[in-house]
Specification:
- The complex is a heterodimer.
- By secondary structure, chain A is α/β, with parallel strands linked by helices.
- In chain A, helix 3 packs parallel to helix 6, helix 5 packs across helix 6 and helix 7 runs parallel beside helix 8.
- Chain A is globular.
- Chain B contains 13 helices and no strands.
- The longest helix of chain B is centred in the middle third of the chain and has 27 residues.
- Chain B is an all-alpha fold.
- In chain B, helix 1 runs antiparallel to helix 6, helix 2 packs across helix 10 and helix 6 packs across helix 7.
- Classes of the chains: A alpha/beta, B mainly alpha.
- At the A-B interface, helix 2, helix 3, helix 4 and helix 6 of A face helix 6, helix 7 and helix 8 of B.
Amino acid sequence: MPLLELRGLTKHFGGLVALYDLHLDVTEGEILGIIGPNGAGKTTVFNLISGVYKPTRGRVVFKGRDITGLRPDKIARRGIVRTFQNIALWQDLTVMDTMRAACHLVSGTDFFGTFLNTPANLRKEKIVDEKALEILRFVGMDHLKDQVAETTSHGYQRLLSIAIGLASKPSLLLLDEPVTALSPERVVAIMNLIRKIREEGTTVVIIEHNMRAIFGVCDRLAVLNYGAKIAEGSPAEIRENKDVIVAYSGARKDVS
Amino acid sequence: MLSRINPTILVTLLAIDALFLVPNIMTSSPYHLMVLTNIFIYIVVVSGFRLVATAGQLSMAHSAFMGIGAYTSALLVARLGWNFWDSLYLAGIVPAIIAVVLGRITLRLRWIYFAIATFAFAILLLKGWGTLFGRVGIPNIPPPNPIGGWEFSSRASYYYLALVIMLVTMLVMYRLDRSRFGLTLRCVAANGALSGAVGINAMGYQIAAFAIGSFFAGTAGALHVHWLRFLEPNMFSFTAMLYIILYAVVGGMKSFMGPVYGCFLFMGMPVFLKYIPNYDPKVEPLIYGGILLLAVRFMPGGISAFLQRVAEALKGLHRKKGKEYAAT
């Protein structure tokens, strides 16, 4: 059984068809890439999976259970966490506080415990702090823990948004353009990080425009164009696929 | 040894101590006690408003929730003969329940739309009070029933009552601010989409903040009308709402202490303005408006943020000195 099944997902915005009849399976333990020209509907797929939008038609099935149209926080609770294309952070929070907040689901604290600051709560918060630090070390930015998140460099903000995603130990992590506008060295570092995340047991789906990066790291690729899936397969298969070449070059059908 | 005592705690304890001593010093000045009592009650109101704002929503119904609390308690005590102490907690709980219901409907709306929706609710209530319970309001509201020899009909005793309730409110606000609950509220306000993505029920947290904030508005409303001994619908009008926003914004929204600074500044100011010869209280709104403009322009984050910057600058100075000593 696939970890995540998209069954005929369709999304209309008024008269615009952003996504049409998408069937896609994500297998446990793989790194799947979703590529396609601007406006192909890639981010719409993430928004539908993570509950930001409700699909016009179709179903999202996760671990065999229908999660179509659930609220984003409930979907996160099931084990799917996504990052955002435009780096999303909580303004004014330090890196450490950001991670504390991101550990919301795994903190195990309750309102009265945290309000009265009971010894049990202090112990739980201490465990959260350790978890947060561990993840910061994992992505390599524990030395910045006391800095305000928004004042760190663009590269570190990208890393931090991945760290936020990892905080609640998801079984499926959706990364929306994790290496956009990064230097080549940083791209390599983040690709290695993504491989490490997979080794830790998290399945990863990536949307990315950086072809060299995504062809290098993904086991499988799905290609979208104008809201429809035009190809699916291994990086080698996709590289040879005529429809894909046409979609990207936007030109002659006789390219071979 | 002395240096180990946290200066913030020391100043806080001294300030609270001083507030408890005030009635002994000012026995001959009921006016000043009255002003202070009013300040305490409004600190409770504004703290509630700030909590809702911390979760990222501007509630324009805060004065209306004050009214719900005030009417709840006034009707129960003056018309049905309830004990004040029994009605006081209902004066908080009834607004909280109404806030949950109103929140479920309106908190889907962001920012200005939520403000407009709550504003509409407030206007509806303002008209409703007169229609339901009479345009003149409720006269002859009895003072709180005595407990253990404490008569709450005197100004000094009511001063203590308001002071204690204010201190309890501040303690609650302090803990809410410092706890994971406060951290999560700030996250919901700063980025709702990201909060949802990490599993935070953004709307649930906003409803909780709205309910708790309205609880304190209602409690303070009841406290206010049992002190004045009468109630009229206009007390909870849009004007009252504007003053709440004024105190909150100038005091500072980012710290639980903001409402304290805001209330003391604006409600304490008339006491000193009276010494100006030929002073006309009608110009007060003008002065307040001027202060608001200056504060927004030159003190972003209000008085509390300003004080924090001053404290940090002083600490930095201190540290520099320490380094120089270490070098020599």
